[in-house]
Structures are given as structure tokens and as C-alpha cells.
Specification:
There is one protein chain. This protein has 216 residues and is of the alpha+beta class. It has 2 domains: 81 residues, PRC-barrel domain (SH3 type barrels, Roll); 119 residues, SH3 type barrels (Roll). Strands 4-3-2-1-6-5 form a 6-stranded mixed β-sheet. It has a 6-stranded mixed β-sheet with strand order 13-12-11-10-15-14, covered by helices on one side. Strands 7-8-9 form a 3-stranded antiparallel β-sheet. Strand 5 and strand 6 form a beta hairpin.
Length: 216
């Protein structure tokens, strides 16, 4: 892994072979689970393990020792993987303002929220998504349905807080579950279908955004 050529070959093999459902093994050949989903942008595998694959591991690509068209082998034993990677990578939001050329040729100020994550490739901060705040807020509406990256329904928008750049998403009638989703996690907004699609899977959203952020 320390050899740049080996690292490049590994990344090329990941790009060539990685697919949902692939079996994942630890360094000793013991099965860890199967790939439920993955992000080549962030550099992580979500591996289902345990009874009925209910427990997920979020394994950075840098822990992949080898991959071919059939199997993935990791560089750590199963116990270490379970100890270190049961939580999704920490995601933060960085706000930035920049000048862009408008339709009339004039420079206009544009505010964007950037989703940042510790890269699964090298552990350094990496951008995974960026949204134009003005465009997003113009398209949002209370009552829109919110879906995760896999198309699973998370709930409906009960309100959206522009100053704090948060969607308040509720599901349920008598005891609704509430999620506080940052604008930076929005992949797209469809006004015609009254729907919002996110960049993250349900498990990561529930674990990261079930409470109002302390700095909000």
C-alpha cells in the first residue's frame, strides 16, 4: 500500500470491479459481510454484517487489501473492523461565498454550502457535495417528500430553516421521528414531483442528524 504504483493499481481495480452485493473478507479470510452500497467520491464501503445484515460497517477504501471481480479482502481482522468502523464517517458543512459571472456578464455573489467528509482514500478532508443556497431555497417547499440516496422515504419536510440551512424532516403521525438535515446533503430538488433527494443513506442520516446541531 505504501508503493504509489500499488495504490494506483488498487484504485483502478476498485473502479473496475466494485459492485453492490460483493462478499467482503477480513485479512484472515473470514467473511465480514456483503457490500450494501459504496461511494467512490467519499471512498467508503457500507458492509452489512451480523444477523440479517442489520449492523453496518463503514469501511474506508484504504483498508481494502485486494479486490477482483468476485471478492474484496481487507487489511485488518474482523474484530478490529467491527471496533473501528460501526459509525459512518463524520460529515461537516463548510459555507463559502464566491463571485460568479451572471447572465448579464456582471459578477454576482454566490453562497454555497459544501459537504465535507474525511476521505476514505487517504483520511484527508474531501468535498462530497456542494449546493447553491439561493437555488435550493427557491425550490424547497413544506410538505415535500425526502428520500435518501437509495430512494428510501425518510419523511416529509415540516419546515426549512434558511438562516441555519436545515431541513426539518418528520415521519409518523402520533410520535413523529424528526431529522435535521443540512442543505449540504441535498443532491436534487424536484418541484414537479414535490420531492427532495439526498446524498446519504438512511442509516447515516439517522445517526448523524437525529438531533438539532449544537451550533445551529
Amino acid at each position: 500500500m505504501s508503493n504509489p504504483m500499488n495504490q494506483q493499481t488498487l484504485v483502478e481495480n476498485i473502479d473496475l470491479y466494485l459492485a453492490d452485493g460483493m462478499p467482503v473478507y477480513d485479512m484472515n479470510g473470514d467473511k465480514v459481510g456483503d457490500v450494501k452500497m459504496y461511494s467512490t467520491t467519499a471512498g467508503y464501503l457500507m458492509v452489512g454484517h451480523g444477523a440479517f445484515d442489520h449492523d453496518d460497517l463503514y469501511v474506508p477504501f484504504r483498508r481494502i487489501r485486494s479486490i477482483d471481480s468476485h471478492d474484496i479482502f481487507l487489511s485488518e481482522p474482523k474484530d478490529t473492523l467491527i471496533s473501528n468502523y460501526t459509525q459512518p464517517p463524520k460529515i461537516s458543512t463548510l459555507s463559502e461565498e464566491r463571485l460568479v459571472v451572471g447572465p448579464d456578464g456582471a459578477l454576482n455573489s454566490q453562497k454555497r454550502d459544501v459537504q465535507m467528509v474525511q476521505s476514505g482514500y487517504d483520511g484527508l478532508p474531501a468535498r462530497t457535495n456542494s449546493v447553491d443556497i439561493d437555488t435550493i431555497t427557491d425550490r424547497l417547499a413544506v410538505g415535500m417528500v425526502v428520500y435518501d440516496v437509495n430512494g428510501e422515504r425518510l419523511g416529509d419536510i415540516s419546515q426549512y430553516d434558511i438562516p441555519r440551512r436545515l431541513l426539518v424532516v418528520e415521519k409518523g403521525i402520533f410520535n413523529p421521528r424528526v431529522l435535521f438535515v443540512p442543505f449540504s446533503a441535498i443532491a436534487s430538488v424536484n418541484r414537479e414531483e414535490l420531492s427532495v433527494y439526498l446524498t446519504l443513506p438512511r442509516d447515516a442520516i439517522v445517526k448523524e442528524h437525529a438531533m438539532l446541531p449544537a451550533d445551529a
